[in-house]
Design goal:
The complex is a heterodimer of chains A (282) and B (330). Chain A is mostly helical and 282 residues long. Chain A has 13 helices and two strands; from the N terminus they run H-H-H-H-H-H-H-H-H-H-H-H-E-E-H. The chains are: A mainly alpha (282), B mainly alpha (330). Chain A: InterPro entries: BP-dep_ABC_trans_perm (IPR050901), MetI-like (IPR000515), MetI-like_sf (IPR035906).
Chain lengths: 282, 330
């Protein structure tokens, strides 16, 4: 604010320019989302009109009906829900302990652990798909939800540890010490003082982890067969030999994206704070 | 405590360097915790390390061994034991002109995507500080919507927008005087198609950069900016000598993460090309995937994946140094 107001120039005019630029950003960045919604609600024949309709001529839900019966919808969605929920529960439980260790204790090898957990995030998932596929094949976990859950921990866990750590370092240690002075044990101080303060951060991290697991595509594609596919892979059902059914596909996309985007809206502010703390604080 | 505190605390040239391997000596707020025994943190870490070892450590070792093996369909079904291939997989790919073309293409693609993402992200983050509150709200909503969009959904949307016959983009461009793009197939050529995919990647990546940088920008002390301005610095000067140095740790982190993500782009290419990327569209990820699962040569696929990981290590090294520095500050 003060960066702008302290300028000697007429503030009203310079703001107008910035606002116009801002609106340009809104239009460009928002267009794909708008186009998804627009296509989802217009009659399928409007979607393949050479002159695109920028608003649905008639508002219809038939694309959603078509999307729902193009292939089983609720099966993949249920599987995605189960996988994401279990991954998050395990991730948070295991990750919280680890995050505590690296943010509240000074111990030998702490730095190595931090670097290790970060390094793990660097390995691209695609690089691991071959051995993971073979491993699950050997363990009889191929095409099993449990197998998918195990593999999703590879990217959920490091992320969880790292962001929870960001939230923990934001809670002043003095609070815990004060509680200990008042007679709490270290564990008691943690449960009564830190844990409640950490709760919003844990919720945000869980939601984020959930979204990541929900959105994963490659492992879901490779490790599950057609009849056990998850929600992201379900979307490819609209691509047929005779072309892509775009209008129902956009309806399907809407069903998959809207809940996720709403979840995102709810927690993103919290997450940005946690991530920034994670980035700049040891 | 804020980003600014930690980073400005770093600015004085020489810090007392703590003895290696021990963080206890650092003049940090949390150095107080010396009680509790060394066993407790390891106990807390054990489940996490165990899981990571199982789900990542073992497959990684397997990746390395695989890349030195002849491993195809018969070995997969267990009809034959995998036999050692020595360096054969590596000599095969490293001696293959196509592989190097893929490496080059991947590096250009990733570099392009990262640079565009970071520049746009920084520009929008700075813009956010200057617009009216209601524009700021609008931008934030749009950014969060595109950020939260599942990659696979975003890919589907872009495919639709860029559709040759009914895509809205060709129609829009054709409104421009002298432009006729109706029926133009964006995916007829690799570079053009990859540019579209790069746009898709950037569109999905910019929001994270903007939101993180915005959070960082709020921590830039206003007094420092004021002081710089009083000393006669222009907008660019303030940015270059005040804002940028303070944001540096965040920028380094974001750039590194972007490099890792953009080198690992897979579903965007795979889905955009209906599961069969043409030679001109192959990046290291899809190339490795193809070798393994289409040609059923898991050894070679693993070797390519391993080379990708090694390539990334160079970048990771920079990130690690930054992280270690941050670790020193506490």
């Amino acid at each position: 604010m003060s960066a702008v107001t302290s300028r000697p120039r007429k503030p009203g005019r310079s703001k107008l320019g910035w606002n116009l630029l801002g609106l340009l950003v809104v239009l460009t960045a928002g267009f794909p989302v708008y186009w998804m919604l627009n296509t989802a609600f217009k009659p399928a024949k409007d979607a393949i009109d050479p002159n695109p309709h920028f608003f649905p001529s008639t508002f219809t839900l038939e694309n959603f009906e078509r999307a729902l019966d193009i292939a089983d919808f609720w099966g993949p969605v249920t599987r995605s829900l189960v996988v994401s929920a279990v991954v998050v529960v395990i991730g948070i439980a295991v990750g919280l302990l680890a995050a505590l260790a690296i943010s509240r204790f000074a111990f030998r090898g702490r730095k190595i652990v931090i670097v290790g957990i970060l390094a793990v995030q660097m390995v691209p998932l695609v690089a691991m798909i071959i051995p993971v596929f073979l491993l699950l094949n050997d363990l009889g976990q191929y095409d099993k939800i449990s197998g998918l859950i195990i593999t999703y921990l590879t990217f959920i866990l490091p992320f969880t540890v790292w962001t929870l750590r960001g939230f923990i370092v934001n809670i002043p240690k003095e609070l815990e010490e004060a509680a200990q002075v008042d007679g709490c044990t270290p564990t008691g101080a943690f449960i009564r003082v830190v844990f409640p303060l950490l709760a919003p951060g844990m919720v945000a991290t869980s939601v984020y982890g959930f979204i990541q697991a929900w959105n994963e595509y490659l492992y879901a594609l490779m490790l599950m067969s057609q009849q056990n596919q998850t929600a992201t892979v379900w979307l490819s059902n609209f691509i047929t030999k005779n072309g892509t059914e775009y209008a129902p596909m956009m309806a399907g996309s809407t069903m998959m994206a809207v809940p996720i985007v709403i979840l995102f809206l709810l927690v993103q502010r919290k997450m940005a704070a946690g991530l920034t703390a994670g980035a700049v604080k040891g | 405590m804020s980003a600014a505190d930690t980073t400005t605390a770093k600015v004085p040239p020489v810090r007392q360097s703590p003895p290696p391997g021990s963080t206890a000596g650092t003049p940090a707020p949390r150095a107080g915790k010396s009680t509790g025994g060394a066993g407790v943190p390891w106990l807390l870490l054990a489940p996490c390390l165990l899981v990571l070892l199982l789900v990542l450590g073992y497959p990684f070792v397997r990746l390395v061994t695989l890349s030195f093996q002849k491993f195809g369909q018969p070995q997969l079904w267990g009809f034959q034991e995998p036999e050692s291939a020595g360096l054969e997989n590596f000599t095969k790919i490293l001696g293959d002109g196509e592989f190097w073309a893929v490496v080059l293409r991947t590096v250009i693609f990733a570099a392009g995507a990262v640079i565009v993402t970071m520049v746009l992200g920084m520009a929008i983050a700075l813009l956010l500080q200057r617009v009216s509150p209601w524009v700021k709200v609008l931008i934030s909503i749009v950014l969060v919507a595109s950020w939260g969009m599942p990659i696979i959904v975003a890919t589907a949307i872009f495919k639709w927008i860029f559709d040759a016959d009914y895509g809205v983009l060709n129609w829009l461009l054709s409104r421009l005087p002298g432009v006729d793009m109706i029926g133009h197939n964006w995916f007829a050529s690799g570079p053009q198609g990859l540019a579209v995919i790069m746009l898709l990647v950037v569109w999905g990546a910019v929001p994270f950069v903007v939101i993180t940088l915005s959070a960082g920008l709020t921590q830039v002390p206003k007094e420092l900016e004021e002081a710089a301005r009083l000393d006669g610095a222009g907008a660019w000067g303030v940015f270059r000598y005040v804002t940028l140095p303070i944001l540096k740790p965040i920028i380094v982190m974001l750039t590194t993460l972007s490099v890792i993500w953009d080198m690992g782009v897979f579903p965007q290419v795979y889905v955009m090309r209906n599961g069969h990327p043409e030679a001109e569209f192959q990046l290291l990820t899809t190339y490795s995937f193809d070798k393994a699962f289409v040609v059923n040569d898991y050894g070679t696929g693993s070797a390519i994946a391993l080379v990708t990981v090694l390539l990334l290590l160079g970048v990771v090294a920079v990130y690690m140094r930054q992280m270690l520095k941050i670790g020193d500050v506490e």
